[in-house]
Specification:
With 286 residues, the protein is α+β, with helices and mostly antiparallel strands. It has 2 domains: 86 residues, 434 Repressor (Amino-terminal Domain) (Orthogonal Bundle); 174 residues, 2-Layer Sandwich (Beta-Lactamase). It is built from 12 helices and 6 strands. A hairpin with a 3-residue loop joins strand 4 and strand 5. Helix 2 crosses helix 3 and helix 4 packs antiparallel against helix 5. It is globular and about 55 Å long. This is Helix-turn-helix transcriptional regulator. It comes from Microbispora hainanensis. InterPro entries: Cro/C1-type_HTH, Lambda_DNA-bd_dom_sf, MLTR_LBD. One of its GO terms (molecular function) is DNA binding.
Length: 286
């Protein structure tokens, strides 16, 4: 076996070739020359350019950042051992048990791609948005226009003066905003106990304590808990108000949160949600 066959580029290519389009929720489409993902499909899933994927696979780029490595691991649906191997090939230290993980296990990815048309997203322990489906982008706006560090529910609910906008591209009204905010802060405090050495988490807490008095007040109340459910009205710019139930499912092993929006079956809101999907992703931020 040559070094080329075990390089970062060759390994990414092997992982790409083994992953079928249907496994990541893409239609099989026309006949393909190979069974795996195309480079442009991997690039889209990982949020990088096609040119960068080409350079990685050709060995012209060999040191992706930890952020890009995490995105590639999610897009390629790597398990924990494969993810760690990817990090080492990239010259990076694999995430340790005491650090927040942005990795979405393959089993969870399979479930996510088979949930149908419900708007779904996955958040890390610090409420950074890691993954979303098309229906999520249709309902709330496309998060890809934000930098990764800006895709954070804590920053969205408790903005600092320098923040330019929230996770949603248009207004979202919570039925009980105070209770929701208390639950988010309590969940973040729980995460701070589990990941006391995580620099990203501690930086988020410091930044928000210093930049948002309401967060500081709730934080100093000392509550510890989880955010589980709420009811919201999304003021969609094309369809109008859509009222949905928001449920949060927790994966305790990986400390991930799956957020799902659903409308009452047979309701006007369910019809509006269907119409929003037909309308497609709408650009713009409020």
């Amino acid at each position: 076996m040559t070094t080329d066959e075990t390089s970062l580029g060759a390994t990414i290519r092997a992982w790409r070739d083994r992953l079928s389009p249907t496994a990541v929720g893409l239609p099989a489409g026309r006949v393909r020359r190979a069974a795996g993902l195309r480079r442009e499909e991997l690039a889209d899933l990982a949020g990088v350019s096609v040119d960068y994927v080409v350079r990685l696979e050709q060995g012209r780029a060999t040191t992706p950042s930890a952020q890009v490595a995490a995105a590639l691991a999610r897009a390629l649906q790597l398990d924990a051992a494969e993810r760690d191997h990817l990090y080492r090939l990239a010259g990076l230290q694999p995430p340790s048990d005491g650090m927040i993980s942005d990795h979405i296990p393959p089993g969870m990815q399979r479930v996510l791609t088979r949930l149908g048309d419900a708007p779904v997203a996955v958040f890390a322990a610090d409420w950074r948005l890691l993954w979303w489906n098309r229906s999520w982008a249709v309902l709330l706006g496309d998060p890809s226009v934000l930098a990764p560090e800006e895709r954070n529910l804590v920053r969205s609910r408790f903005p600092a003066p320098s923040d330019r906008g929230g996770l949603a591209a248009w207004p979202v009204v919570s039925e009980n905003a105070e209770a929701t905010d208390r639950a988010i802060v309590a969940d973040l405090r729980r995460a701070s106990g589990r990941y006391p050495q995580d620099a990203r988490l501690s930086g988020l807490i410091r930044r928000t304590l210093g930049g948002n008095p309401r967060f500081a007040r709730l934080w100093h109340s000392g509550a510890v808990g989880r955010h589980a459910e709420e009811r919201k009205t999304i003021r969609h710019p094309v369809i109008g108000d859509i009222t949905v139930d928001c449920d949060v499912l927790a994966d305790p092993d990986n400390d991930l949160k799956i957020v799902i929006y659903t409308a009452i079956p047979g309701s006007e809101d369910e019809t509006k949600l269907d119409l929003a999907r037909v309308a497609g992703v709408t650009a713009g931020r409020f």
